[in-house]
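Quick one before lunch.
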Amino acid sequence: MKRVALLGATGSIGRQAIEIVEAHPELELCAAASGSSPLDGIAAPFTQVGGDLTELLDRAEPDVVLNAVVGFTGIHATLWALEHGVDLALANKESLVAAGDLALAAQRRGGGRLLPVDSEHSALFQCLEGREPDQVAALVLTGSGGPFRGRTRDELADVTPEAALAHPTWRMGPKITVDSSTLANKGLELIEAHFLFGVPYERIEVILQPTSIVHSLVRFRDGAALAHIGYPDMRAPISFALTYPERAATPLAPLDLTSLTLEFAAPDLETFPMLALAREAGERGGTYPCAFNAANEVAVAAFLDGRLPFLSIAEVVADAIERVDGAPANDIDDLLEADARARALAGETVAVA
Ligand SMILES: NC(=O)c1ccc[n+]([C@@H]2O[C@H](COP(=O)([O-])OP(=O)(O)OC[C@H]3O[C@@H](n4cnc5c(N)ncnc54)[C@H](OP(=O)(O)O)[C@@H]3O)[C@@H](O)[C@H]2O)c1
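Model of the NAP complex:
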């Protein structure tokens, strides 16, 4: 029996995770948490709405933490699991992007496994099978391109939150859906892949595959390229992470290969500058990825509130990256300070936009 603590139980990942847990007799929900929504109908010995997630984890003593909270607020739960040597099934990419080296140091001390839930990173993890970075010629992250793929900058000037929330292939929470429309999500995933797999940025590529059938691939140094393919359904990577190293049965439909035509295209980096900004933040290192994430969270919230035009999201983030000092964080206090500083700078830019 594996005891699962589900953080973000009322969200898109959280609800699908409950389905997976209920379908597997060897999984047991020992804790569930949300930010403010009631946990109606979610049965777990320990539940919590709001508050300090690490206190809940201390009490629940899980075997695996599924961190499906949205945003930097998931940082403490990520560090708790890594520090305590408890397996971390990570959907909350923002925490790994922001904490980076601090998170990996916590994992080295704690010794728990870091199991990606993001579909691209689950795909890469499965293709890599634990191989060392020196056997990898490149990691190739795939992306659908979001609802605005193919548009020009002029055509993006007046797009509404409703249009940005209409993702072509995935049904997800609002923040990640907007991130998909700006390509910030692919940028966060680029940094996430760097920290998860230890591959330098110059060997991480991004390619668009509009139907989201190819979940990512690894080019090995011997010329072989291994891809992970399947329908876009988060229950597959959630189940893989929760039941690892087993491959438990899921109710997913088998892939109908005869119905597939796979098309690929390079991302348009000029129309969607967030991907290049994320690469720049990742390559600069230190707390630049933290600043990228923090400014993006502020800008996306403002866009969803109707306070910021779509194209200004990237301007807010670019400005914050230029103005922070980006010095590496020695501890969580340094990181919280870097996050707060970037949020304050982004808030100033939003206010005058
Ligand atoms: N959805 C996907 O398909 C997908 C795919 C890959 C990766 N991810 C990643 O998974 C994470 C969750 O995404 P999502 O789409 O599931 O988001 P979502 O639908 O917006 O759900 C977010 C969840 O986080 C909870 N939450 C927010 N603040 C919290 C806090 N302070 N303490 C405890 N819980 C808190 C929310 O609770 P309330 O209901 O109370 O607000 C909700 O349960 C994100 O990092 C996202 O990037 C998602």
